[in-house]
């Protein structure tokens, strides 16, 4: 079933420079705040070959982990951790060996083996563990795969759910830490969720955060403006669950009206959005025959 992904957009002001215009990388070993070095040492006591740079108003460490051997990993500092000047870790990205993937994240490895890419002959090139809050279990496993000149990045929740699937290229931007203001908003309003992705949409001019409710496999895409104010929330559920939702919450008469509105008799051809407002009221929207999104009614999940 198709689900429309266009979101309400606002143009960011000076705040976008937080991640884009201010993309300088400066060696910060000499100027590293004590609170940052202490936080890093506590979080990664076995780190070796540590190098620091200042990037996007963060102190970023690249390092090796003593527990790993060169037989397990590629040469170079392949682990990163981003710290605010106050010593809070906004993102860590740690390389995983295949043995660690199979043993510690077996659900992810199982999902990979069941994927269309495994069947199609793609090979794993690299595996990383992303965590945006060291005090919570919001871990995401990123698997980079390749087949000839084709490359993709697959992002999995630790329960094995595929939450992001993108074509990768040399122009791909690195993963970024989620600003504390957005993390605080999510922790307050959605305490049982984990952050699985954060992006700065430069062209559209928004901050987008994707969260997952692991108990239900429901995903929500939250869009914020330059003041870190919520401007839209969309809910993403898989096709099977969406069909069940339509059959459960819409009468035959209501479905007939949507068929007339869209010109599509098959619900799998509808362009659908599930939107949530600030009061957590969820509404079902569908694109009419003229390409305009139309609010059908409020629903429950």
Provide a brief overview of the structure.
The protein contains 7 helices and 16 strands. The chain is of the alpha+beta class and 301 residues long. The chain has a 9-stranded antiparallel beta sheet with strand order 1-2-3-4-5-6-7-8-9, covered by helices on one side. Strands 10-11-12-13-14-15-16 form a 7-stranded antiparallel beta sheet.
List keywords for this structure.
single chain; 301 residues; alpha+beta; Nuclear Transport Factor 2, Chain: A; nine-stranded antiparallel β-sheet; seven-stranded antiparallel β-sheet; globular; disordered N terminus
Structural notes for this entry:
This protein has 301 residues and is an alpha+beta fold. Among the domains are: 1-19 and 193-206 and 218-223 and 234-301, no CATH class; 23-92, Nuclear Transport Factor 2, Chain: A, CATH 3.10.450.360. It is built from seven helices and 16 strands. It has helices spanning 34-43, 98-104, 106-114, 116-119, 180-189, 239-249, 252-262, and strands at residues 25-27, 47-55, 58-65, 79-83, 89-95, 123-131, 139-147, 150-157, 162-167, 194-201, 206-213, 218-224, 230-236, 272-276, 282-287, 293-299. It has a nine-stranded antiparallel beta sheet, covered by helices on one side. The protein has a seven-stranded antiparallel beta sheet with strand order 10-11-12-13-14-15-16. The longest helix has 11 residues, at 239-249. The two termini are 18 Å apart.
């Amino acid at each position: 079933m198709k689900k429309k992904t266009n979101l309400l957009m606002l143009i960011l002001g000076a705040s976008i420079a937080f991640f884009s215009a201010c993309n300088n990388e400066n060696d910060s070993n000499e100027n590293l705040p004590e609170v940052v070095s202490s936080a890093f040492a506590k979080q990664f006591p076995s780190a070796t070959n540590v190098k620091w740079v200042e990037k996007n108003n963060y102190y970023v460490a690249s390092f090796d982990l003593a527990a790993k051997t060169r037989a397990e990993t590629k040469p170079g500092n392949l682990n990163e951790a981003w710290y605010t000047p106050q010593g809070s870790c906004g993102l860590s990205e740690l390389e995983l060996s295949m043995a660690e993937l199979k043993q510690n994240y077996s659900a992810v490895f199982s999902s990979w083996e069941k994927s269309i890419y495994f069947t199609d002959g793609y090979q794993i090139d690299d595996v990383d563990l992303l965590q945006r809050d060291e005090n919570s279990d919001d871990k995401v496993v990123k698997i980079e795969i390749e087949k000839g000149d084709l490359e993709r990045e697959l992002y999995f929740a630790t329960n094995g759910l595929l939450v992001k699937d993108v074509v990768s290229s040399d122009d791909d931007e690195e993963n970024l830490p989620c600003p504390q203001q957005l993390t605080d908003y999510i922790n307050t309003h959605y305490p049982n969720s984990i952050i699985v992705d954060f992006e700065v949409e430069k062209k559209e001019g928004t901050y987008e955060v994707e969260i997952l409710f692991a108990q239900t496999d429901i995903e929500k895409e939250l869009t914020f403006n330059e003041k870190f104010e919520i401007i839209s929330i969309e809910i993403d559920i898989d096709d099977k669950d969406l069909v069940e939702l339509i059959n459960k919450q819409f009468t035959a008469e209501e479905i007939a009206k949507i068929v007339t509105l869209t010109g599509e008799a098959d619900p799998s051809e509808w362009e659908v959005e599930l939107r949530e407002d600030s009061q957590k009221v969820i509404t079902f929207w569908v694109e009419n025959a003229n390409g305009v999104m139309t609010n059908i009614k409020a629903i429950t999940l």
